[in-house]
Write a structure and sequence with these properties.
By secondary structure, the protein is mostly beta strands. The protein contains one helix and nine strands, in the order αβββββββββ.
Length: 163
């Protein structure tokens, strides 16, 4: 009986650790220009449109992105960690060119946009950006970063160019 109680106590104290996700790295597996089916969209407090889309398909593998309304670019990535098939939320940061973006919704210049990228350990997930408004069409260096636990785990750089 005493052994059973100790075993039960050990099981109870280790169970929460089994539920925790350990993210070791993020691997970018593909990047470029994408197409997708738009399901819904809203605007955040900075005026940036947040799109919920499905059926992402890579149209071109490139880091040069035309500054044109409707163009969607991004990355497909895989979270490396444990346990497999466990959900994890990453911070997605889109870094804009040094001149920034000038949203009509706010007086401040935007230098980055932060959102959440939900992923599953071991599965390929898409994260990206879509040009929805003319004020977003700013040529220069852009990047998409993925962060977890205060650490940047992946970054893909793009060059947005005038068409």
């Amino acid at each position: 009986m005493k052994i059973l109680s100790i075993a039960s106590l050990a099981l109870l104290t280790t169970s929460p650790a089994l539920d925790q996700v350990q993210v070791r790295s993020v691997e970018i597996v593909r990047y470029g220009i994408y197409t997708a089916e738009l399901r819904s969209s809203t605007r955040d407090n900075q005026g940036v449109q947040e799109n919920i889309s499905t059926n992402f398909r890579r149209a071109d593998t490139t880091t040069t992105i035309p500054a044109q309304s409707g163009v969607r670019f991004g990355i497909e990535f895989k979270v490396i960690g444990a346990p497999a098939n466990k959900s994890v939320s990453l911070k997605k940061v889109v870094v804009f060119p040094a001149a920034g973006l000038h949203s009509p919704a706010i007086p401040e210049t935007l230098y980055r946009n932060e959102t959440t990228a939900d992923a599953t350990v071991g599965e390929i997930t898409y994260a990206g950006y879509k040009f929805d408004d003319p004020w977003e069409l700013v040529p220069g260096p852009w990047s998409i970063q993925l962060w977890y636990g205060g650490r940047m785990l992946a970054e893909q750089k793009f060059t947005v160019a005038a068409p």
